[in-house]
Structures are given as structure tokens and as C-alpha cells.
Write a structure and sequence with these properties.
Rossmann fold, Arc Repressor Mutant, subunit A, 2 domains, 4-stranded antiparallel beta sheet, about 25% strand, WalR-like, phosphoprotein, transcription regulation
Length: about 230
């Protein structure tokens, strides 16, 4: 049974989420503010947090930071506005996904199950995947370029893994979105993919303005190119 912590000060949303997830067999706890969330996190371990960004005594970012310091739960942010800066900041600090209010409970359920599936996919042996001069250690979740570690957000890492495991294939934007989010691409803003491709290139390319590892296929999508 997966343990879920919902951090949400809107009682209607919190009760609806709690009821739905308990029906699906989750063990659920609810916190209404940062202080309650940190108290629960200090005494219990959770598989996943559903974390509102706007809380009465702080914000979801500080709860996420605290959660990652005491454990390794998956984190899904709830945001009242589709603010790219908030989204990128949350994902960079270890968040796994986000969903914009208002949202459907079925959509949220799909997101939670998706991040838990990814979290639980732990291969028994380390697999090293190469893309050009990059080495990706799948078990450790680490990426090295010319023996120097490259620090990626969770989303950037998943995007890179998708391109590297299907290197030299042309992947449509819809395929990449589905692979990253593990649910239908209709639920997210397509511009998010463009943002992450740009950020990923800045970290792994020798010259991001003249990319050699991630090629843009205009009107279709992208291709991860192996230079081995």
C-alpha cells in the first residue's frame, strides 16, 4: 500500500483528494499548512506528496525541500497558475510533476500512479547508456560528460533518458511528452517541452546554439544523435 501525504489548505480539495485516493487503496494523511506537513514528515515516510504551492504559513517549495532532506518521496506540485518560473523552480528542486488548478481527480490520480511507477522502477544491475560523450548511469540516476558530472532536474533527466534509449530515432513531440509524463500529452502545455530541450542543451552541449547531441527535426520533433 502506497503512503500519500496531501498538503493543501483548501478543505474541499483536500477532502476530495483524500476520499478518492483512499478508495484506490492508498494510505492517506492530510496537512493544511507547512508546519503540519513538516511534523508529519518528521515522523513518517511517504511514497508521494501532493503539495500545494500556496500555503497559509509559507509555500510548498520549503515543504519539498524539507521532505527531500528526510526522505525520497515523489512530489507533485499543485499550482493555481500556470507560471513557468514556479514550475521550473519546483522541478529543479526535486519535484516530479505539477498540475494546474482547477484539475480533475482522474487526472491527478493518473499523475500520482505514473510518478510512483517511475519511482519503483529500480533495475537490479547498473546500466550505462551513452549519447555522444555523455554517460548515463541509470541505476544511480547520474549523468557524466567527459568524466564531469552534469546535474539535471528530474524532468531533464527523464527527457535525456528517452532520447538516449532511442538514439538516432526521430521522436515526435507527442511521443516525448507522453514518455516524460507517462500520461496523455493533452494534460500539459506543449511549450514546456521546448523549455526543457533548451535547458537540457545548455547543460550537455558543447555549443547549445549549434547542438550535436539533440537535433531539432523541424515540424516533427527531436532526435538524440550518437557520436560514438
Amino acid at each position: 500500500m502506497s503512503k500519500l501525504l496531501i498538503v493543501e489548505d483548501d478543505e474541499t480539495i483536500a477532502l476530495g483528494c483524500e476520499y478518492s485516493f483512499k478508495k484506490e487503496g492508498f494510505e492517506v494523511m492530510v496537512a493544511k499548512n507547512c508546519a503540519q506537513a513538516k511534523e508529519l514528515l518528521s515522523r513518517n515516510s511517504y511514497d508521494c506528496l501532493i503539495l500545494d504551492l500556496g500555503l497559509p504559513d509559507g509555500n510548498g517549495f520549503e515543504v519539498c525541500e524539507y521532505a527531500k532532506s528526510v526522505g525520497s518521496p515523489a512530489v507533485i506540485f499543485l499550482t493555481a497558475r500556470d507560471d513557468e518560473n514556479d514550475i521550473v523552480f519546483g522541478l529543479d528542486m526535486g519535484g516530479d510533476d505539477y498540475i494546474t488548478k482547477p484539475f480533475g481527480l482522474k487526472e491527478l490520480m493518473s499523475r500520482v500512479k505514473a510518478v510512483l511507477r517511475r519511482k519503483n522502477q529500480n533495475p537490479d544491475q547498473e546500466k550505462i547508456i551513452s549519447l555522444g560523450d555523455l554517460k548515463i548511469y541509470s541505476l544511480k540516476g547520474k549523468v557524466y560528460k567527459k568524466n564531469q558530472e552534469v546535474f539535471l532536474s528530474a524532468m531533464e533527466y527523464r527527457l535525456l533518458m528517452t532520447l538516449a534509449t532511442r538514439k538516432n530515432e526521430i521522436l515526435k513531440r507527442e511521443e516525448l511528452l507522453d514518455s516524460i509524463w507517462d500520461i496523455g500529452g493533452d494534460f500539459i502545455n506543449d511549450n514546456t517541452l521546448t523549455v526543457y530541450i533548451k535547458r537540457l542543451r545548455e547543460k550537455i552541449e558543447d555549443d547549445p546554439q549549434n547542438p550535436k547531441l539533440i537535433e531539432t527535426i523541424r515540424g516533427i520533433g527531436y532526435r538524440g544523435i550518437s557520436r560514438e
